[in-house]
Write a structure and sequence with these properties.
Oligomer: single chain
Structural class: mainly beta
Radius of gyration: 19 Å
Shape: globular
Order of helices and strands: HEEEEEEEEHHH
Length: 192
């Protein structure tokens, strides 16, 4: 009930798309969540019914429970943002704007998306709040799909040995993959 209550001011629609996300097989059709965040007109960092955890020092946290627990990866696109006035104080905490969280309780799995809709733009040298956001969800491939991908050509390839990880991206550019990102993605960094 609390989660549904906290989502009262967030509107999102799931759309099925094919082939938009580079590096993802078309058979895995990712879903898109469009999220409109309704900020308070009086307070620059207030979202009605958002959570405000102590460790975020006043930044809002919006949590969305996903119906599907087979989500393996998420990517984001800011669709609309508003610059925060320079007078607004932003705490110096380390956080991901959007993160995927999988939980298990009493044998039941659940997937969550946590959104902290404030970020620093290094080009403009200022903070922005996100008004509209597009999140692309990539599902885990089914075992039958993995089996279809294995052929004698891939088994005889120089890439057939070792552990390989495919990380899809939505835009061309330079991405930083630090140890904390890899750990959150479930990748053991001790052998790298």
């Amino acid at each position: 009930m609390g989660i549904l209550h906290s989502l009262r001011h967030i509107v999102f629609t799931a759309l099925l798309i094919v082939g938009l996300h580079p590096g993802v097989l078309k058979a895995q059709s990712p879903e898109q969540l469009r999220i409109d965040i309704q900020w308070s007109a009086e307070e620059p960092l207030l979202i009605s019914d958002a959570l405000y955890p102590e460790e975020l020092e006043g930044l809002p946290l919006v949590t969305i429970r996903l119906a599907d627990t087979d989500v393996e990866f998420i990517s984001i696109v800011n669709e609309a943002t508003t610059a925060l006035p320079d007078t607004v104080s932003i705490p110096n905490v380390n956080y991901d704007v959007v993160s995927l969280r999988n939980t298990s309780d009493r044998g039941s799995s659940q997937s969550w998306i946590d959104i902290i809709p404030v970020y620093f733009d290094y080009v403009e040298n200022r903070y922005f709040k996100i008004d509209k956001l597009l999140i692309v969800l990539t599902k885990k491939p089914s075992k039958s799909l993995k089996a279809q991908l294995r052929t004698s050509e891939t088994d005889n390839s120089v890439l057939a040995n070792g552990t390989w990880i495919k990380i899809p991206v939505t835009e061309s550019g330079i991405y930083k993959l630090d140890e904390s990102y890899l750990k959150k993605a479930g990748i053991t960094t001790a052998s790298i």
